Amino acid sequence: MNVNRAEFIKSAVKPADFIRDGLPTAVFSGKSNVGKSSVINRLLNRNNFARVGAAPGKTVHINYFRIDERCYFVDLPGYGYAQVSKAERDRWSALMEQFFAEPRLITLGILIVDARHKPTGDDVTMANWYRAAHCPLVVAANKFDKLKKSEYGPNLERIRETLDFGEDVPVLPFSAEKGTGREELLTRIEEAVTLSAAKGLNTKILRCAQNDK
Length: 213
Prior knowledge:
Blueprint: E1 6-12, E2 25-30, H1 36-44, E3 62-67, E4 71-75, H2 86-100, E5 108-114, H3 121-133, E6 137-142, H4 152-163, E7 171-173, H5 182-212
Parallel strand pairs: 2-4, 2-5, 5-6, 6-7
Antiparallel strand pairs: 1-3, 3-4
């Protein structure tokens, strides 16, 4: 996958705006201050491509970036920002419920958490939404470079236990600042995109065969 071929496509504010063209999607979620946009920027080797907001939690929309004409990076709105009004939280919750109600919109879920801290209740809620969608999932423990070496293993295990994930869900050390974990996360995305594309092709071939009968 050539991540240098990346372009912003649109922002979705309602279900009618969701892209449903069949391209695989890598869906990114995380708290407003966890560095989600920075993670996407690091993956794409861009500065400020996925905008790093000065006022977290103020905008409720879903951003679509098309990567190498092969997939979308889907940036969900951040959550958990204390100063957001109840109305904004309700709008965020409604949009997420509508998005996750269509599991086909998610090829791979990428839940970004803070490696330094125990996942929050909102992180657990997001993990449960991914779980209910039955989609493959990767957890990226961002800000890993801020940890002491003695904290590496215990912190990753705490994340896994709090989110209640088994060994089938990778919990990857990541640093948007240093680049730690970039290649491994890109590999996971590439594998999911390739598998999804292969399944889509097989489905088309099957339909054609059935139509020819």
